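Long-time lurker. I teach an intro course on protein structure, and each term I like to show students one example going from raw sequence to a predicted 3D structure in token notation. This year I'd like something fresh instead of my usual example. Would anyone be willing to generate the tokens for the chain below so I can use it in lecture? Attribution to the forum is fine with me.
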Amino acid sequence: MTYNSASVIDDCLDALQRYAPEVAVTVVDNGSADETVERVQKHRSVGCIQNNANLGFATAVNQGARAGAAADSILVLNPDVTLTTSLDPLVEACRTHGIAAGQLTDSQGRPQTGFTIRSLPGPKTMIFELLGLNRLWPSNPVNRRYRCLDRDLEKPGPVEQPAGAFLMVRRDVWENLKGMDESFYPIWFEDVDFCRRAIDRGLRIEYVPTVKARHRGGHSVGALGSAPRATYWCDSLLRYAAKHFSTAEYRGVCAAVLLGSVPRGLAGILRERNLESLTISMRIAGMAARRLVCAQQDRNAGGGD
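-- Reply from a regular --
Happy to contribute to a lecture. Here you go:
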């Protein structure tokens, strides 16, 4: 999926051609206003689906998966991800387990600790994150488990939540899980939800660190602006909590969004020297308060028990 990705898409497609020439590539563009589509079209072997608007990450990924219906596996790859090794070990792991992920690295080739693999977030994880405890005390046990900080990232094995930026799924598994949930819009937590649903069905997600890709990070979301980013992130986080947590747990997460919005707004005023952050925080607090009151309805709508 691309969205104003002209600055990175050539590197991504060139690396796919170099390290995985047998892979049929389809780019789904979500209404880019830059030269992304023109750059993609210069790669003659690459298919391109052009959406007139930003339909969201999950919708675009599902479109791409349908376009490649003849393939045995689906590789989800962000435009700011550049392969640096062959995909062969990842393909083999995907055949065996159904879902597999490689290692994301920084520009120096170091694993992106805390991002390339994580544990599935529970209510406590989300509350710690929302209240800023993980930032103030990054070595706390909840954060260490969530971001897999004690794991050797050069060792393969099962994981709970690899980054959706570099994920391979066997076709039958993708179809059984019905792809990504498009209600997560425009981005965030759709990949977490996908992994959660896979694990709930007893599937194993295999981490293959010998398959590596360089990841710039934050490419598309950086263009959204601070107000939409904060609002979309909280909305998707609450949608995930409504779908997978009990009503009491969901209410706890809503309360954490509500409580955490106040210090975030005040910190934003000091940092940016304007009232925009406070306005955003109050908007998010209002959203969390409404969901706190309507917790059971939210869970019913989200598919919770």
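Some talking points for your students: Strands lie at 26-30, 47-51, 73-77, 81-83, 98-105, 117-118, 157-159, 161-162, 166-170, 204-215. The chain has a mean pLDDT of 93.
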